[in-house]
From TrEMBL:
EC class (word): transferase
Family: In the N-terminal section; belongs to the phytochrome family.
Substrates-to-products reaction catalysed: ATP + protein L-histidine = ADP + protein N-phospho-L-histidine
Domain of life: Bacteria
Protein name: histidine kinase
Organism this protein belongs to: Flavobacterium fluviale
Ranges of residues in domain Histidine kinase: 528-751
Gene Ontology BP term (one): detection of visible light
Phytochrome chromophore attachment site domain location: 146-303
Amino acid sequence: MKIKDIVNRDIVNLTNCEHEPIHIPGQIQPHGFLIGINAEWKIDFCSENISSYFKLLHSQVLGKYFKEIFGSIAEEEISAYIKGDEVQDAFPLEIKLLGRLFQINIHKSNEIYVLEAELLFADKEGLADVYKQTIQFVSQMNKTKSLKDLCALVAHGTREITGYDRVMIYRFDEQYNGEVYAEDCREDLEPFLGLHYPHTDIPAQARELYIKNQLRLIVDINYKPVPIFTVDDKENKNLDLSLSILRSTSPIHVEYLKNIGVGATLTISLIHHGRLWGLIACHHYSEKNISPEIRLAAKLQGQFITSQIDIRQSNDENVNAQKTIEALEQMTGLELPILQHSLDIIINAPQLLNICNASGVSILYRGKIYKNGLTPSDEEITSLTEIIENKINNDIFVTNKIIEDFPEIAENSNFAGIIYHSLGVNSNIIWYRPETILEVNWGGDPEKSIIYDSNGLHPRNSFEIWKQIIKNQSTHWAKYEINSAAQYAHNLHNQLILIMLSEEEEKYRNQSEILKETNSELENINWISTHDLQEPLRKIQLITSKMLSELDVISTESISNSLQRVSKSANRMSGLLEDILKYTRIKNTRETLQEVDLNEILESTIKEMSEALSESNAEIESEKLPEVHAIGFLMRQLFINIFQNSLKYASVDRKPKIKITASQEPVLIHDKYKVYCHWVRFSDNGIGFEQKYAESIFKVFTRLHTQEHYTGSGVGLALCKKIMQAVGGDIHAEGKPGVGTDIVIYFPCDPEDTLLPI
C-alpha cells in the first residue's frame, strides 16, 4: 500500500494570491490529531502526529478499519454521536481512545467523516460556571440600547469568559475594509479601537471560510504544521478542511500575526443576513488554548451580537429617524393652495431639509428653480438635471460621491452628495449635502498591506498609525433618509399634478365664462344697435325734417334750439360708439401682466380728472395702495371709470367724497374656485343702490336710472368688470340707498410673490 501526504506546497504570488487554496492546506495544528474515515469505516486520512498520542505511526493506521485500531466500543460511540449523516456540533464527543480521554469534533467533508481529537481538558471549566457568566451577560445586554454599546459589552464579556489579552469587535464596510468597532484589552496594551484595516488583511477566500466555519482557533502562532497523509489510490486526492478546528493557517496570515506580536488567536464569525458582518477577534500575546465549554460560550457571544444587529441598528436609526419622520409628517400635513406659488411655501419650509437631513434642496418646475439652503447655482442645477436625465435611466438617483458619477459637474461644485427624484417632464426635486472631509486612522498604510519579493507574497510588517484624508464625498445617506425623501417626492408629485389639473380646470372655466360674457355682449350690442343708437338718430331725423318743413316761418332762435338738440343727440351717439369700441377692444391679456404700483395709477388719475373733481368739489381720501399684478393703462381706465361713476351718482345733499382703502400685504382671498392676493375698496357717499342690483350693474348697457336723470351709456361699470376679468381679477359692488356705494376690486396672485400665509 502506497502512502502520500496531501500538503499544499504552492508558492503564493501576485497571480494566484486571490485564489490561495486555504481550505485544503493538507496540514493541521499540532494540539490535536486528525483522522478521516470513509463510508466503510476505513481510515483514509491520518495526521502524522498521531504518534504523539499513541504508540502508532500514521502508516500503521491508514487503510485499516477504525475498530481494528480503536476498538468496536469506540466505533459504536462515534456512530451514535453521528446519528446517520447528522453531526452534533454543539459539544464535542468525550471518548476514551486506547486508554486516554479525548474530546473529538466531527464533521463531514464530502464522503469523509473527519475526526479531530484533542486531549480532554483536565481543569476545564464546568458548564455551571459558563452558564452563570452567560446569564449575567444577558442581563447586562438587555440594559444596552445602541449597537455600539452592545458590542462594547460583548468585547468585555468575551474577554472575561475567555481570558484573552485583547478582544475586538471587528466590523466590515461594503468593501470589507475593517474597523475596530469595540475593544477590551489589558491596560498595558496600546488600544486598537477605531483603527481601520484594508480588505486585503482578510482576503475573499478567508471571508468565505469564516462564513462556513464560525469559530477559528490558533493555539500557538509558532506551531509547526503537521502534514496529513492518505492512501495513494487516487490522483489529486485531497481533504477539504473548511469546517476543521485544527486546520493549519495560511503562511501569509501566520506571518501577519507574528508581525503584530500575537501568540494565539480566537476568531468568531458574525454573520448577518448571510453576509460576514464582522468578527470577534481575540488576541493573546503568548500560547493559549481554551476548553470546548469556553469556546461555545464565546461563540454564543457572537450569536448575541448577530441576533441583535437589526434591532440595535433599528434603535440607533429610530433615534435619528424620528426627526425625519416628524419633518415628513409636517410637510405632508401642510394645507397648500393648489397654485404654483405653493412651491414658495414648500421650498422655504425648514422641514423640507430635515426630511433627509440635507444642507440644501432645489425644486425645478416649468423652467423655474426654487432653492433653499446650501445649493448649487441655477446653471449648475440645470446642467446636473440634463446630465442625470441623459445618463441615468431611473427616476431616482442617490450618491454621496457625485464626482465618481459626474466628474464634469462636480469638480468645482459646493456639493458632494445628492438625492434626485424626477417629478415628471422637466420637473425634479434634489436634496444636497456638502463635502465632508474625513480623517481615517489605518493600522498601517493600506496601500502597502502586501509586500512582494522573489520568495512570494508577505504581509506588511509596519502597523504604525497611518492617517488618510478622504475628500470628495458627503456623509452617507441613511436608508431611512432615502425612504423619507422618496415618500415626500411622491407627495410633491401629487401636488404638482393637482396644480396642473386646477389650472386646466380654471382655464376651461374662464373660457366658459368668456363665452357666456361674449354671448351676453352680442345680445346687448345687438339691442343697443337697434334701440339706443337709433333713438338719437330718430331725434336728429325728426328735428331736421321739421326744420325743413318750416323754413319759411321758423325763427332764428328756433333754428338755434333745434341745432343744439341735433348736436346733443349726435354727441350722445358718438359717446356711445366710443364706449362700445373701448369695451370690445379689451381682450384677455393676462400673458402681459406685470408689477403695477397703484399709488402711481391713483396719482395720474387724480391729475387727469382734476377739472372734473374740482367742478364737483369732490374730496379724495386714500391710504397707501399695494403693488399688484396687472396692466398699467387698463388700471388707469379702471380708476377713471370708478371715479366717474361716483361723481355721476353723487348726492345733491352733500359734498362728494371718495375714500380708498386696500390690503397692505398679500393675503389669500378665496372666492368660489378662484384665489386672489390683494383688494382695493372705493367707498363713496353718493346715492347708492339696492343690493339686489349688485350684479346687474356690471352688465353692459344696464342702467338703474333714466337717461333724463343721469346721462351715460351704461358701459362704465361693465367696462370695469371686463378690465378686471382681463387681468384675472374680479370686481364687486356693495350699495346702500341714500348712503353710498362701495366698489371692491380683487387682484390675482403674482407668481413672483413672496410667501403668503395659508
